[in-house]
Design brief:
alpha/beta, UDP-N-acetylmuramoyl-L-alanine:D-glutamate ligase, 4-stranded mixed sheet, 13 strands
Amino acid sequence: MASIVTVGSAVLDRVYTLTNLPERDGGAFATDCIERAGGVAANVGCALATLDHDVGVISRVGDDDAAETIVGSLHDHDVDTTGIRQGDGASSYTLVLRGPTGDRMIVAGGESVPQLRLQPTDRDRVRGADCVFTSAYAPDAVVNDLLDLRESGAIDALAFDLAGPLEELEGRGTAPETIDRLTASVDLFVVGEVAARSYLGREPREAARRLREAGASRVAVTVGAAGAYLAENELRHVNAVETDVVDTTGAGDAFTAALIDAWVLGNHTAGAAGRVAAAAAAQNCTAPGPRGALPTREDLPEA
C-alpha cells in the first residue's frame, strides 16, 4: 500500500458531557468527563493506517502524561511515531463540550503543536511519501514549507483540510495568504461548510466551484448530514450515509482519509470516492471517540 505522512495536530481531547450547551453568559453542569487522544493529523493518520497504508505522523507533544496517551494511541493503530518530537511544557489539547443531543463546542489550547517546525529529517520523510496530509491547525510555517515542497515537485501529492474558520486559526494555524496559495496547488482541498463560509463567504456548492476554479485538483466541501460537494472534472453531490449515530467526533477526519485513499491515491471518480468516504464517516459515528469505529478496507463499498 501507499506511504503517507500526516503533519500537524496530535493532541489530547478532554470531553465534557454537559446538561446543556450554554448561551452567552450562561452556564451548564458537566455530567461526565473523559480524556482520549485526538487531533486532525493523528486521526487521519490512524484512519489511513486502518486502511492498510504505511503511515507516519509528524507532530510535537509536551513533557507530560498527555504525551504518553497521544503517542500510545498512535502505536495502537500501527502508526510510525518517530516524527513526533517532545518538548518542554504541556501537550496541546482540545476541550470538547457535548450537549445532551450531541451538539458540540470545541476549544483548543496548548503550545506544543503551535511550536512545531519541520526539521531536515521531516523534509526527507515527506519527500519519500506517496501523499502528505496536513490541516489548517498546523502552524503556518509548517504548511508553507510543505507547500514549497509540493510546488517544487519534491512532494508527489499534498492534501489539505481547512479544518476551522479563519478567526479560530489566527496566531496559531495557517494564515489566509497561505490558504490562498494552497488553493492553487493542492491535490485535495477539504473544507467544512462553516470554514468555507468564513474563508470564501460562500455556501457549500459555490465554495466547491470556486476552489476548483482557483486551481485545487480535487475539492470536497462537507455539509454534515446533508452530505458533501465534490469537484474535479465536474461538480458532484454525494449523500451522507444514514446510521445509528453515537458520536460524530472524527467523522470528517474519517471522510478525509477515505478520500485520500480512494480519490488521490486510488484515482476513482469524484462520485465513487465520495460514496466510499461517506460510508467511512458514517461507520466511525457508530462508536464513541474520533477513532471509535474506523473502517477497514473490507468494511467499505467498492468505489
